[in-house]
Amino acid sequence: MDATTDSVAITSVADAPNVLYALTREEALAAYRMMLLIRRFEEAVNEAFAQSRVRGTSHLCIGQEGVAVGAMAGLRPDDQVTSNHRGHGHFLAKGGHPKRIMAELFGKETGYAGGRGGTQHMAWYEIGFLGSNGVTGGGIPIATGAALAARQTGSDHIVVCFFGDGASAQGTFHESLNIAALWKLPVVYLCENNQYAMSTPVSESCPVPRIADRALGYGIPSESVDGSDVSAVKGAVLRAAERARAGDGPTLVEARTYRYHGHSKSDTCEYRTREEEARHKARDPILLAESCLLRAGWVDAPTLAAMRADVGAQVAEAVKFAEESPEPSGDATEGVFANE
C-alpha cells in the first residue's frame, strides 16, 4: 500500500540529503521557519479541536509542509493560488496572517471570512490566495478560469492549483487540463500526492505509476518530485511558471508527500501500518531542512532552538488572539449572495 519510493531513513546530519541546494542562506532559513510555522500552527489546531474549543472538523497538512513552502518559493508575489480542504499551509506560505486564519477557525469576527467560512472557506485576494475549497477538486476549474482571466487581461502572472491525488480522478481535473492544454493557459496543476484519498491508496485509484503520467493524455509536460525536498519542489514550480509565462501553457507537477494524521480528525488511519508511517516520518521535511542548515554551517543548534521557541510563541499569540476576538456580528445571511 506504500506507493512512494522515498523511504531512506535519516540517521545523522551527514546522511541527510541536501534539500536546500537551490536556496541562499536567507531563503533556506525563511523556508525552514515557514515549514515550522505551518507545523506548529496545525498542531495547535489539532489541540484546539481535541479540546472542543473549535467545532466541526479539520484536515491537517502535517508532513506536507515542504510542498507548500517549496511551491511558493518558485512564485512571484502577484501569482495566484487555489487551495483545497487541506489548505492552512498553502495560505500561510502565501502570506496569510496566522492570527486571522486561527480566528476564522475559531469562528470569530476577525477571521478572513468573519468567522462564517471556517477551515475550508478562506480567501485573501490581495495576496493572490483565491481560496481553499471543501469540494474535492473544486479548486481546479477555479484556477483554470483564473488563468483564462490572466490571459484575457494581458497579465503575465500565473496560477498554481493545489489538489490531492484523489482529485486527479475527478471529472473537473480532466476537463480543466484538457481546456488548459488546448488554450495554453498559464496554470500549474500541483498534485500533492500524499498516497491516500481518504483511506484509498493511490495504487487502487490511479492506473498509472505516477499522477504526473496523466499529463500525457493532454500533451502537456509534467514532473514528479519528492515533496520533502523544498528545492526540488521550488525548481519544478519555477520551471512550470516560466513556461506558463512564456505562453507555452500548463504543466502538471506531482509532489510525492505524506500526511502524518488521518484524512480528518475522526480518521484513525487503520488502513495503513505504523511501519509505513515510520518510514515516511524518517524523512520529515523539517528535520531534513534542519540537517541541511547544520551541515552547511548556516545555523547552530541554539539558533534553531531559538527559532522553534519564537515560532511557538507566534502560534500561541494567534490562539490567544482568536480566543479573545469577538463573535461574528449580524446574522448568517450577511455576505451571502445568490444569482437568480
Give your account of this protein's structure.
By secondary structure, this protein is α/β, with parallel strands linked by helices. It has a single domain (24-324), classed as Rossmann fold (3-Layer(aba) Sandwich). Helices cover 41% and strands 9% of the residues. The chain has helices at 25-50, 65-73, 88-94, 98-105, 139-153, 171-183, 230-245, 274-281, 285-296, 301-324; strands at 80-82, 159-164, 187-193, 196-197, 200-201, 222-226, 251-256. The strands form two sheets. Strands 1-2-3-7-6 form a five-stranded parallel sheet, with helices on both faces. A two-stranded antiparallel ribbon has the order 4-5. β2, α6 and β3 (187-193) form a beta-alpha-beta unit. The longest helix is centred in the N-terminal third of the chain and has 26 residues, at 25-50. The chain is globular.
Biggest sheet layout: 5 strands, parallel
- Measured by DSSP, the beta-strand proportion falls in 5-15%
Shape: globular
Give the number of helices.
10
CATH class: Alpha Beta
Q: Can you count the beta strands? A: 7
Total discrete domains: 1
SSE pattern, N- to C-terminal:
HHEHHHEHEEEEHEHHH
CATH homologous superfamily?
A: Thiamin diphosphate (ThDP)-binding fold, Pyr/PP domains
Looking at CATH, which topology would you report? Rossmann fold
Broad structural category: alpha/beta
